[in-house]
Amino acid sequence: MSGRRVTDTSEFFSIDFGDIIQLGQKQFQITGHERERRFGLDEPKFWVKTAVDLDTGEKKILKLSFLESFETTLGGVKIRCFRNPQKERDILELVKDHPLFMQGTSYEDEKGNIVRVLDIVRGINLFVHLDSIVADYETYFRTLLPGMLGKLLKAFEAIRFLHTHGFKHGDIRNDHLMMEKETGNFVWIDFDYDYESGENPFGLDIFGLGNILLYTVGRGFHTIYRIANDPVFYGKLIDRIQPSDFSILDKRRLVNLRKVYPWMPVMLNDILLHFSRGAEVYYEFVDEIIEDLNRCLHSVFEF
Amino acid sequence: MATSILVAFSESVSSRAMLDFLATMPLCREDCLVTLLHIFKKPSASEELMGKKFTEEQPTRLTAALQKAKDKLVESGFRPDHIQIELVSDPYPTVADGIIDQCKKRGCQMVMMGRKKMSKAEEFVMGDVSVKLVRALEGVAVLVVKSK
Which of A274, B34, B57, B123 has the most CB atoms less than 10 A away? Predict the structure, then answer.
């Protein structure tokens, strides 16, 4: 395996298998590209390389500077999003040795591009983990969920740690939370996304946490499509749901899970309802979710 | 005893509606000390894209708008020596943080602001300054004028 020696990573598309990226004294040999596997996609992410540290032989992930910027619409609200390598570098420094965040070191190439050299988090993400559970829902709810919520609570505390230092995670999703094989911890990965947020700097992070909680409690999302097309599971639920039962930012996603599982504790469902279109009061800070979830864990699950 | 009113001002339509409301409010104008305040937020990336010229001209433009607002209040009977204009350029994380801090520093009895109509989704994502003021300020009246 032999390739070029690269000291300027600006043209990341052309950096390929066998090339050696030289960052000061450090050298990393490229072994491949990471892939985007969400939404049924399987496309290479050319700015994220798999590599080997030639000093230590360790496998690493190299994230190269990709200054992507785009506008997204959530619940009819336009939001400008962009990748911010500087933010990820700053967070990596902040969370050094923190067990609930991916670890890594940042370097600058000869053109000043920020390259993040990341340790691989061994394990599976929350999305895959929940998908792999075969127990029926009630068994899941009674036996597995309390432990999961306990771990989520710690992961939410970790996000609070970021927020209190003025940083957003920026892209809180169920595949950016890894269940680390060795420790069982939930570990946050990928913090380079950023967004413009007006008066509510952490609004989208809070929304992301709400989605993760909803996904975990419901063991997946209950969408209008599923409800309409699976009468065996949902019965006549379609006749009993209102727009106010759905997510404030995603009108297809059911938030009021008591409509599916009427036995679900009100206290837990009420936390979810803060993210519904029917909500009059929203969470503004992670602390508020943590407080409610903590209370719920102790009183509902006797955790 | 004079009543100290902090008027959070911007160039928005809702801010103008708020000013119209204040100008016609049945108040004892002689006893009101009004601060017309504009908070500069740390410019966002997209504001930076508006260009250096736009950013440099902002203070001049806002000072002129604040002066015009003062003239309007004087016309409606407020004493010119009881109206103060303030352009606060300390970089607050959010406008709400700036208003709250300035209100506390000045010991105001009332804060006034305009608010445009927002959807629930907008309120969730973008945040609502007026709600933050109500939550954070104690012993202070918060008057919110919603524009149509």
Answer: B34
**Total H helices, total E strands in chain B:** 6, 5
Question: In angstroms, rounded to a whole number, what is the distance separating the alpha carbons of residues A160 and A162?
Answer: 5
Record: contact A196-B95, CB cut-off 8 A: no
Cα–Cα dist A10/A15, whole Å: 9
Q: What average pLDDT does this structure show over A191-216?
A: 93
Q: Does the predicted interface ipTM exceed a cut of 0.90? A: no
CATH 1.10.510.10 positions along chain A are 123-299
Instruction: Residue B132: list chain A partners with CB under 8 A.
Output: 199
As a whole number of angstroms, the distance between CA A25 and CA A9 comes to: 16
Q: What does the mean pLDDT of chain A come to?
A: 94
CATH 1.10.510.10 fits A123-299, yes or no: yes
Provide the token pair at B52. 């250096």
| CA dist., res. A187 & res. A179, Å (int) | 6
Q: State yes or no: pLDDT of B4 exceeds 60.
A: yes
* Across A178-202, average pLDDT: 92
Continuous segment of H or E residues that includes residue B125? helix B120-126
Residues A87, A213, A138, CA angle at the centre, nearest 5°?
155
3-class secondary-structure state, position A302: coil
Cβ burial A253-275 (10 Å sphere, 16+ → b, else e): bbbbbbbbeeebeeebbebbbbb
Amino acid (one-letter) located at A211: N
pLDDT tens string A81-117: 999 999 999 999 999 999 999 999 999 999 999 999 9
Query: pTM of the predicted model, to two decimals?
Result: 0.88
- Whether residue A296 is predicted with pLDDT greater than 70 in this model: the reply is yes
Q: Which of B94, B95, B120 sits opposite A248 (nearest CB)?
A: B120
Q: Band the pLDDT of B91: cuts 50, 70, 90.
A: confident
Probe site for chain A from B124, B131, B134, B135 (most A CB atoms < 10 A): B124
